[in-house]
Amino acid sequence: MSRYKVSYNFLHFNTPTKIVLYRLILIKISENEELQLSEVFYTKLEKYVNQLEKSYLWATDDRTEQNVLKIKEKATDLLFSKVAKHINEVAKGNRKLIFRSGFHAVLNKKLSTRKRVIIPRMIAYRRGAYNSHLAL
């Protein structure tokens, strides 16, 4: 089993990059039969991306327009977070399927086989491991 999941790094992108990425994701999902969304949800996503782009193009230094842009951006981010969750469920760790959806894939750290051993400071100090470079 692969250990990959959808990366949510798109939430930190600037608005123009998000618009382009969201359009790419919509195209990729419409082309891929394994990742099909309901028609109602797909049209809702398209509508939100169009509204986000329109508000971005019309936003100036006016506070009201900037606030409307932020609200639309948060709403679109929430919808695409739901899409990312759906892709995670469908892909089941398959990195290629995640990439074919338009999202980025990252290694799932919860399923990683590495184990980190943490020794408390006092135990390490008593064993001579702490500040052992000073004992020379």
What does this structure look like?
With 136 residues, this protein is mostly helical. It has five helices and two strands; from the N terminus they run E-H-H-H-H-E-H. The chain has a two-stranded antiparallel sheet with strand order 1-2. 17% of the residues are buried.
Overall helicity:
55-70%
Distance between the termini: 49 Å
Question: Radius of gyration from the CA trace?
Answer: 22 Å
The total count of helices amounts to 5
Q: What's the overall geometry?
A: globular
Count of individual beta strands: 2
Largest sheet: spatial strand order: 1-2
Order of helices and strands: EHHHHEH
The SS-based structural class is: mainly alpha
Low-pLDDT regions: none
In what range is the share of β-strand residues?
A: under 5%
Seen as an oligomer or otherwise, the chain set is: single chain
User: Mean pLDDT score, rounded?
Assistant: 83
Biggest sheet statistics: 2 strands, antiparallel
In short, what is this structure?
It is built from 5 helices and 2 strands, in the order βααααβα. By secondary structure, the protein is mainly alpha-helical.
Topology summary:
Elements: E1 4-6, H1 15-31, H2 39-58, H3 63-91, H4 95-100, E2 105-107, H5 121-127
Features:
single chain; 5 helices; 136 residues; two-stranded antiparallel ribbon; mainly alpha; 58% helix; 2 strands
